[in-house]
Design brief:
Shape: globular
CATH superfamily of the largest domain: chitin-binding protein cbp21
Distance between the termini: 51 Å
Helix content: 10-25%
Structural class: alpha+beta
Strand content: 25-35%
Largest sheet: 6 strands, mixed
CATH topology of the largest domain: Coagulation Factor XIII, Chain A, domain 1
């Protein structure tokens, strides 16, 4: 239907009117805080700009035209039977499989522990057995598909009559970092029908683990030699960027953003896949994304560090540690290394320019997100300046 509309040249206004008319027979979605479906629908269904929504579009997100119909008929409170692990956000509907991608960068709403109002906008009112809300357990691993066992129940509304808007005050428990709130609207099968509706809401409690590197240190000792000494150490970094990756196995299931090595190349799963050889099933819209050869350009290097220890009549001394950095023109940020891990804010130099990481998950992938060279680099990095 979507392609037909586009080919006929119907405007976005007309398309909006068609959708509005269709909603008379539709049901409901969480509008506040915005569910994953609404976040991506409002980011642009045809041409999204957020990396997670781009990936979802490639994996299948046609259902974003009708986010009020993430539903399964006849469930009658037996949700786990109809929806398998890994398909909770799509409700196991193939046109929404992109919503199941295991990612760390879905658009999320900042929240805090305590009472929070969740709003279902019901485009068709139904009698209700319950609205239930679950949240992922502390320490939930977003790189793995969402499972029923990852969730704990935090709210049950009980029975309700037909409502155009349903508001529920949900007491959010203590959590840190990103989590998923999963909500189920179960129609009353005794007074209405046995259909169930499902919504994933991405939230961020903040306070996630961060790391920092000290640039200098002060060392106190009772006695320090009166002469200074210089110690030099060197380290070698293997140029095999696939050394830590598992080999692809046809019997193993994979999902985004899991990576494997196969035939001396690095691949990342675009979405759930099993038995699909990366060599013959790679591409932006295929099962795998080809991230290039494992070895790539040589990255073996020696980094010299000098430690100067000085003494005086005092019993304390200052130890200054300096390490070499790769200089490119007038930029002193280190050279980009494909396959290395980068945090948000990290700066690197590549192809004569300096870049800053904006989405850590994508910066670390490399390949298509390599700064300045990958076809999707702008989704992961921002250009800081030219080094020339």
């Amino acid at each position: 239907m979507k392609k037909t509309i586009m080919k006929c040249g119907i405007s976005a206004v007309v398309l909006g009117s068609l959708l509005a008319a269709g909603q008379a027979f539709a049901h409901g979605y969480i509008s506040s805080p915005k569910s994953r479906y609404i976040q991506c629908a409002q980011n642009g269904i045809e041409n999204p700009t957020h990396p997670a929504c781009i990936a979802a579009k490639a994996a299948g997100n046609g259902g974003l035209y009708t986010p009020q119909e993430v539903a399964v008929g006849g469930v009658k409170d037996n949700h786990e039977f109809f929806i398998p692990d890994g398909r909770l956000c799509s409700a196991n509907r193939s046109n929404l499989f992109g919503m199941d991608l295991a990612r760390t960068d879905w658009p999320a709403t900042s929240v805090t522990p305590g009472p929070r109002t969740f709003t279902w906008t019901n485009t068709a009112a139904h009698k209700t057995t319950y609205f239930r809300y679950y949240i992922t357990k502390e320490g939930y691993n977003h790189s793995q598909p969402l499972r029923w066992s990852d969730l704990v129940l935090i709210h049950d509304s009980g029975k309700a009559d037909q409502e155009a808007v349903s508001n529920h005050v949900v007491n959010l428990p203590q959590r840190t970092g990103r989590h998923i709130v999963y909500s189920i609207w179960q129609r009353d099968w005794e007074r209405d029908a046995a259909e169930g509706f499902y919504q994933c809401v991405d939230v961020d409690f903040g306070g996630g683990t961060t790391s920092s590197v000290a640039s200098s240190s002060s060392v106190k000792s009772s006695s320090v030699p009166s002469s200074s000494s210089v110690a030099t150490t060197s380290s070698s970094v293997s140029n095999d960027t696939c050394a830590s990756l598992p080999a692809w196995n046809a019997s193993t299931s994979y999902t985004n953003p899991q990576q494997v090595k196969h035939n001396n190349k690095r691949y990342q799963a675009n979405y759930w896949t099993q038995g699909n050889d990366p060599t013959t099933n790679s591409g932006q819209y295929s099962y795998w994304l080809d991230l290039g050869a494992c070895a790539g350009s040589p990255t073996s290097s020696s980094v010299a560090s000098s430690v100067t220890v000085s003494s005086s009549s005092k019993s304390s001394s200052s130890v200054a540690v300096s390490s070499s950095s790769v200089s490119t023109g007038n930029c002193t940020s280190p050279a980009y290394v494909n396959g290395s891990s980068y945090a948000n804010g990290a700066k690197v130099t590549n192809v004569g320019n300096e870049y800053q990481c904006t989405v850590a998950g994508w910066c670390t992938v490399g390949g298509p997100y390599a700064p300045g060279t990958g076809w999707a680099w702008a989704n992961a990095w921002s250009l800081v300046r030219s080094c020339n």
